[in-house]
Amino acid sequence: MSLIKVTIDNIEVEVEPGTTILNAARKIGGAVVPPTMCYYSKLEGSGGKCRSCLVKVAQGSTKDPRPMPKLVASCRTAVMDGMVVQNITSPEVMENRRAITEFLLLNHPLDCPVCDQAGECHLQDLSYEHGLVDTETVEERRTFAPIDIGDKIKLHMNRCILCYRCVMVANQLTDQRVHGVLGRGDHSEISTFITRAIDNDFSGNMIDVCPVGALTDKTFRFKSRVWFTKPFDAHRDCPKCSGKVVLWKKGDEILRVTGRKDKYGELEDFICNDCRFEHKENSDWVIEGPRKIERHSVISQNHYETEVRNRSNQSQ
Amino acid sequence: MQALTNRSKMVSNKQMTFMERIYLPAIFKGMSITLKHFFKKKATISYPEQTREFSKIYRGRHVLKRDEEGRERCTACGLCAVSCPAEAITMIAAERKPGEEHLYREEKYAEVYEINMLRCIFCGDCEEACPKEAIFLTDRIVKSDYERLPFVYGKSLLVEPLDPNLRIDISGRQTKNVLNFKQNKRFAHNR
User: Fold this and answer.
1) List of chain A residues whose C-beta atoms are within 8 Å of the C-beta of residue B113
2) Span A100-120, pLDDT tens digits
3) Mean pLDDT highest for which of A68-72, A150-154, B5-9?
4) How confident is the model at residue A2 (pLDDT cuts 50, 70, 90)?
């Protein structure tokens, strides 16, 4: 099959037919990649819910050069030959994204100082880039008490943006899903069936796929803010999963174990609960080295990837 | 020999005159300067009894404020510690248990909160970073000591007393603009 040409923000890229606009933009990389809150490349059928990746299609294809009448969700729209897409070059898209951010924050509490996700939260990043300091709504936010779903996972329904990622992870990783979205519209909420607890071996991945702080690790709860911990790549022989993880250490103590996330915040490998919750001794792991953290992330505070040497040693 | 800088002075071995040799004029000149200072206003004060007037926005010893109901405002978010250029602040967070709602305002609180006053440079960045209006610098000063350890201030020294009469007033530190901003209900965090 021949490759087709797409232009995104005046950058031309050749992709295979059937690729979504988002993945074509990710092939270019950099600032033209639309933000995603619900799309997850490792999960089938994800995307199309949060609307934060909306882009403008200025020209549908070479054969039919009419623009698309509305902004389209880039994670769900396949590219056509000769398509011209505008993302950050279109003021309409940016204005829309600002409004979407406001929508996502409609019921989101302002508890980042308390939330364990702060510092690695996608909604925090999105609202930092596009959000406003104030909100136009005067209505009460809906509130829920935080509950334990499973003995290692805490659910703060207040913070949930209903991206459905955790539901898909349970559907596609396991054969028994015991949680889901109950209710409709404004009443929808993530919950388990009555008195059912999530005890699957891979349930911990719900924490990693959650873009906000709705699902958090109970073993790490309030232990430390993420920017005070130092991430290290490590692995171990695990019979259930790949065993490739990131250890979040403070001093010599392992506070948290998570999967390895790529630059879009998506897991490279799903890891099992044994690795995530049960192995927090240094002797359990083979440490490969410090994890690369993007320079502008708050986690990179006091974070040195390479050995610090003075210049006279370096020249030798 | 060529001089290395133009600041060097040549030493001369010239003979002193008679007036210079008897030294008395120079001594009287010096004594008169000393005597003049007896009648001038003193530059020092006798400190513990007397104190100088402090600026309203003096950046002295920190206080961790309580809210109107006497609950601790600090939620151990760590923004003060991350903004601190001297890395003087450390904290350990804990979860509020049911029944402690009258003590702590949020579901998380600082179990241990320490400021190393020897490290602190009193820049006020922690106050600026605080999202909960918990930490403020006051017009009080850090007491001197002979040891180093007493300079690590824990919560017992930092949190203001519960007694409403002993509360520490920091309203002088807040400018008109800041107070206006805080009263504006349009901003989400003021609700």
Assistant:
1) none
2) 999 999 899 888 999 999 989
3) A68-72
4) confident
Residue range(s) defining the domain that contains residue B85: 62-190
Is pLDDT of A162 > 60? yes
The verdict on domain A143-220 having CATH code 3.30.430.20 is: no
As a residue count, chain B comes to: 191
Which residue of chain B is at minimal alpha-carbon distance from A225?
B78
| A4-92 matches A143-220 in fold | no
CA-CA distance, A118 to A121, in Å (whole number)?
Answer: 5
**CA–CA gap between residue A51 and residue A130 (Å, rounded):** 14
Q: Which secondary-structure segment (H or E) carries A4?
A: strand A4-8
A222, B188: Cβ pair inside 8 Å?
Answer: no
Q: How many domains does chain B have?
A: 1
Q: Compute the nearest-CA separation of A117 from chain B (Å).
A: 11
Domain-wise residue ranges, chain A: 4-92, 143-220, 226-300
| Residue-wise burial string across A161-199, b where 16 or more C-beta atoms lie within 10 A, e elsewhere | bbbbbbbbbbbebeeebbbbeeeeeeeebbbbeeeeebe
Place of tokens 């410090």: A290
3.40.50.720, 3.30.1330.10, 3.10.20.740, 3.40.50.300: CATH of A4-92: 3.10.20.740
Helix (H, G, I), strand (E, B) or coil at A135: coil
b/e string for A82-114 if b means 16 or more Cβ within 10 A?
bbbbbbbebeebeebbbebbbebbebbbebbbb
- Kindly identify which residue of chain A lies nearest to residue B186, measuring between CA atoms: A134
